[in-house]
Amino acid sequence: MSNDIALEMPQGIFNYRVGAIIYEAGRLLVVKNSGASYYYTVGGRVRFGETTEEAVKREAFEEIGIHLEIDRLTHIHENFFVMKSNGITYHEICFFYLMKPHPMLKEISLGTFKEGYAEVTYSWLAASELESVLLYPEFLGSELQSLESGVKRFVTRDDITYEA
Question: Can you give the pTM of this predicted structure?
Answer without folding.
Answer: 0.93
